[in-house]
Design a protein that fits this description.
The structure is a single chain. The protein has no helices and 18 strands. It is mainly beta. The strands form 4 sheets. Strands 2, 4, 5, 8, 9 and 10 form a 6-stranded mixed β-sheet that branches. The protein is elongated.
Length: 195
């Protein structure tokens, strides 16, 4: 039996569900399932559907993966059992924040401080949006955003003239791939860093 997958790679943002599909030609229904690969071990994942078509003699399976954080990226393989797998691995790459500022600024009065946030970029997805906050309130002034020279990330820089008042405020940035507007439910989660 030859196990085949529908696709060998996905690049996606967070807060979506993607479907992995594979099938095998067989005269009877086979227990076709998915495995996630960790180093040298394969962890079985129960598929969402397992259907046998007795007209075409094909067993077809689907696995719905909820992508909530960048931790959901991984490598998967479809197989009948521990000895018979598809020849192709399916990689799931999740785009996310790889620099996320959150904290108070450090500097002396009258210094100019630049805070930077960046978000993975993929030309096949909508242009991401990065929003800056001061004490939890969105701000729009002093921001310069553009693609990085190598076009792999979308970078937003917030420039602040330091005052006594601004040293006491908290600044943060959050990113989304929702082009229709900033949506709190579509924020990419990330570790917080400070400059």
């Amino acid at each position: 039996a030859v196990v085949s997958t529908q696709s060998t790679g996905y690049t996606t943002a967070t807060n979506v569900t993607i479907t992995l599909e594979c099938e095998v030609d067989s005269p009877t229904k086979l227990e076709l399932g998915w495995y996630e690969i960790f180093d040298d071990s394969f962890d079985y994942i129960e598929p969402d559907t397992l259907v046998f078509n007795n007209v075409t003699n094909v067993t077809h399976t689907m696995l719905n993966l909820e992508i909530s954080t960048t931790d959901n990226r991984g490598t998967f393989i479809c197989g009948i059992d521990e000895n018979e797998y598809s020849k192709d691995f399916v990689t799931v790459d999740v785009l996310g924040m790889h620099y996320n500022f959150s904290g108070v600024i450090v500097g002396d009065t009258n210094d100019v401080v630049a805070l930077e946030c960046s978000l993975d970029y993929n030309k096949d997805l909508q242009t991401p949006q990065i929003v800056w906050f001061e004490n939890g309130n969105p701000i729009t002034e002093g921001i310069n955003a553009d693609l990085s020279p190598n076009k792999t990330s979308y970078v937003s820089i917030l420039t602040i003239q330091v005052t006594e008042d601004k040293l006491k405020k908290n600044y943060s940035c959050k990113g989304t791939y929702n082009q229709s507007g900033f949506d709190e439910t579509n924020i990419l989660n990330s570790e917080n860093d400070t400059l």
